[in-house]
Amino acid sequence: MLSLPKTSNITHQQTQGVFISLQDWQHFVLEYQNFQKINNMRTGLKDAFQEVKDIQAGKKAYTTMNDFLNEY
Fold this sequence. Notes:
Elements: E1 8-12, E2 14-19, H1 22-56, H2 65-71
Antiparallel strand pairs: 1-2
């Protein structure tokens, strides 16, 4: 779980920037990269399930495994 880092704000009428430690930044970047991987996988699965539904409904053509393997 991502804990909130200690921050320092740069203010001039409204917050314009935030300072965090390098260690907190590196942790944030790692967590964000993991989030992106999970989100990409989720999107790919969602698209794949939609494609299966479209094939089953006859809205999209499909290729059998034998045809796919024989293409290459």
